TrEMBL record:
Residues 468-488 are annotated as: Disordered. The chain crosses the membrane at residues 180-199. GO terms for cellular component: membrane. It comes from freshwater metagenome. Its EC number is 2.7.13.3. This is histidine kinase. CDD domains: HAMP, HATPase, HisKA. It catalyses: ATP + protein L-histidine = ADP + protein N-phospho-L-histidine. Residues 200-252 form the HAMP domain. InterPro entries: HAMP_dom (IPR003660), HATPase_C_sf (IPR036890), HATPase_dom (IPR003594), His_kinase_dom (IPR005467), HisK_dim/P_dom (IPR003661), HisK_dim/P_sf (IPR036097), Sensor_HK_Regulatory (IPR050736), Sig_transdc_His_kin-like_C (IPR004358). PROSITE patterns: HAMP (PS50885), HIS_KIN (PS50109).
C-alpha cells in the first residue's frame, strides 16, 4: 500500500462499495413495503369502484345465483378474489360467515380476513395483509350497510373483501435486488479498473517529477520538468520548472561570483607581492620608490574597497544590514555627496551641476545608506565616462515619492547591457571597479522601500533613486524600532 496507484484504486473501491451500500439499504428494504402499499391502495380503489352491483343485489334481496354472478364479475374486473362475508351478532360477539365467493367455494378457513375485522370494528374501508400457505396476500375490505325497516337505521350487514396475491410483488423485489447487485458489481469492477488506470497515470507523472527533482538536487540542471497538463500535477511541474530555472541561474551566478571574486582579489594581491619584491631592491632611486609606494597605496585602496563591498553584499544577503528610521532632506544629502567629489571631479576634469530646487525633499530612509547609494551613482558616472563629461544631480518630490537623479552626458549604455548593470561583478566597458557598487546600491534601495533604476540613450545616462517620501508616523519599511535588521 506504499504505492499511490494502489491506494487510489482502493479508495475508488471503498467509495463504490459505500455508494452501493447506500443505494441497497435505501431502496431494497423499503421497496417491498412500498409495492405492497401501492397494491393495497389500488385494490381498495377497485373495491370501491366495482362493488356497486353487489351492493344493489344485496339491497334488492336478489337470488343467490345473481349475487354470486355479480361477485364473480367484480372479481374478474378487479383481477382479484372477491368474498362476501355476512355478519351475525350474538351475546356481544361478532361471527363472520361466507355468503358468496368468486372461487365458488366456501371452504376458505385458511384466510383470517384481518381487513374485514378492521372494517367491521371501524365501520370504514380497511386494508391488511396476511400470510397463507401459498404466500402473502393483500386484502381490501369494504363494509356494506342496509336499512333496518323496524328501526329505520343503517346497519352493517356484510363486508365485501377483495384479496390479491403478493407473489408478483416479491418477484419484482427479488428482480430489483438482483439487478442492483449485478449493476453494483459491474460498477465496482469498472470503478476499480478506472481507478487503477487513473492512479497508475498519476503515479507515472509523480515518478517522473521525482526523478527529475532528484537529478536537479544532485546538481544536474540540464534535467527538465515536463508540463503535461493544466491540473494540479501540471501546475506543480510548472512551479518545479520555474524553481529549476532559478536554481540554475543561482548556481551560475554563484560560480561566476566565486570566479570573479577570486580574480578580483588575486589581482591586487599579486600586484602587492610584486611591488614588495621590487621595493626590496636597494638600488631603487627615490623617485621610482615613491612611484611604487603610490601604486601600493592604490592597490591597497582597491583591495580595501573590494573587501568592503563583498562584506556589504554578504551582509545584505544574510539580512544583517540595519536601517535607521530617519527623514533626511535629499537636497542637503546630495549637496554633501557633491562636496565629497570635488577632488575627483577636478582630477576628471568634469563639472557637476546641482538642481536641488527650493522646497525640501524629505525622504523616509536611512540617511547614511541613502548617501552611500548617491555616492555610488556619482562614482559610477565618473568611472564610466570620458574626462570632461558633464554630470548633473537633481532632487524632486512627486506623488508621495522623493527622488534623486544622477545624469551624465557620456556615451551611454548599450540596450543589451542596460538590464545587467545591477548584476554583481558586471562592468559594461571594462573600466575600473569590481562591479559591486550598483548591485549593493539597488539592494539597499529596495530594503528601504525604494527603487534604483537606469535609463540610457546615446549621449545621456540617468540613474534614479526613488524613495518613500517622509510622512508623520509612517515607519521605515522593514523597521519596527529605531534600528532593525533587514532580510530578504
Amino acid at each position: 500500500m506504499q504505492s499511490l496507484a494502489n491506494r487510489l484504486a482502493l479508495l475508488f473501491l471503498l467509495i463504490t462499495l459505500g455508494a452501493m451500500a447506500v443505494v441497497y439499504v435505501g431502496v431494497v428494504p423499503n421497496l417491498e413495503s412500498s409495492l405492497v402499499d401501492d397494491r393495497a391502495r389500488r385494490l381498495e380503489a377497485a373495491a370501491q369502484r366495482l362493488s356497486a352491483p353487489v351492493r344493489e343485489a344485496i339491497d334488492a334481496s336478489l337470488p343467490v345465483a345473481i349475487l354470486d354472478q355479480r361477485v364473480r364479475q367484480a372479481a374478474d374486473q378487479a383481477g382479484a378474489r372477491v368474498t362476501l362475508l355476512g355478519i351475525r351478532r350474538s351475546a356481544g360477539t361478532i361471527e363472520r360467515f361466507v355468503k358468496s365467493d368468486s372461487n365458488a367455494s366456501v371452504d376458505i378457513q385458511a384466510l383470517e380476513f384481518p381487513a374485514a375485522m378492521q372494517a367491521i370494528e371501524s365501520g370504514r374501508r380497511a386494508t391488511a395483509t396476511e400470510s397463507v400457505a401459498d404466500g402473502r396476500v393483500v386484502e381490501a375490505a369494504l363494509p356494506l350497510y342496509f336499512t333496518d325497516r323496524q328501526t329505520d337505521r343503517r346497519v352493517l350487514g356484510s363486508v365485501l373483501v377483495y384479496t390479491a396475491p403478493l407473489e408478483d410483488v416479491r418477484a419484482n423485489v427479488s428482480l430489483v435486488r438482483t439487478r442492483i447487485l449485478i449493476a453494483g458489481l459491474l460498477a465496482l469492477l469498472a470503478a476499480v479498473l478506472a481507478g487503477y488506470v487513473v492512479a497508475r497515470s498519476f503515479g507515472r507523472r509523480v515518478a517522473r517529477l521525482e526523478d527529475v527533482a532528484r537529478r536537479v538536487a544532485s546538481g544536474d540542471f540540464s534535467a527538465r520538468f515536463r508540463v503535461d497538463g493544466n491540473d494540479e500535477l501540471g501546475r506543480l511541474a510548472a512551479a518545479l520548472k520555474d524553481m529549476q530555472r532559478q536554481l540554475a541561474e543561482l548556481d551560475t551566478a554563484r560560480r561566476r561570483f566565486i570566479a570573479t571574486a577570486s580574480h578580483e582579489l588575486r589581482t591586487p594581491i599579486f600586484s602587492l607581492g610584486g611591488f614588495l619584491e621590487l621595493l626590496e631592491d636597494e638600488d631603487l632611486d627615490d623617485e621610482t620608490r615613491e612611484r611604487f609606494m603610490a601604486q601600493l597605496h592604490d592597490q591597497v585602496d582597491r583591495l580595501r574597497k573590494l573587501t568592503t563591498d563583498l562584506l556589504d553584499l554578504s551582509r545584505i544577503d544574510a539580512g544583517a544590514i540595519e536601517l535607521r528610521r530617519e527623514e533626511p532632506d535629499l537636497r542637503a544629502l546630495a549637496q554633501t555627496v557633491a562636496d565629497e567629489f570635488v577632488p575627483a571631479l577636478a582630477e576628471h576634469g568634469s563639472a557637476l551641476e546641482l538642481a536641488l530646487g527650493d522646497d525640501p525633499v524629505e525622504a523616509q530612509c536611512d540617511e547614511e545608506r541613502a548617501r552611500q547609494i548617491v555616492r555610488v551613482m556619482v562614482d559610477n558616472a565618473l568611472a564610466h565616462t570620458d574626462p570632461g563629461t558633464g554630470i548633473a544631480v537633481a532632487t524632486e518630490a512627486a506623488s508621495g515619492r522623493a527622488r534623486v537623479t544622477v545624469t551624465d552626458t557620456g556615451p551611454g549604455i548599450p540596450r543589451a547591457e542596460l538590464g545587467r548593470v545591477f548584476e554583481p561583478f558586471y562592468t559594461s566597458d571594462g573600466r575600473r571597479g569590481a562591479g559591486l557598487g550598483l548591485a549593493i546600491a539597488r539592494e539597499l534601495a529596495e530594503r528601504m522601500g525604494g527603487t534604483l533604476t537606469a535609463t540610457s540613450v546615446p549621449g545621456r545616462t540617468t540613474f534614479t533613486l526613488d524613495l518613500p517620501r517622509a510622512a508623520p508616523g509612517r515607519p521605515l519599511p522593514g523597521s519596527a524600532t529605531e534600528t532593525a535588521p533587514i532580510g530578504r
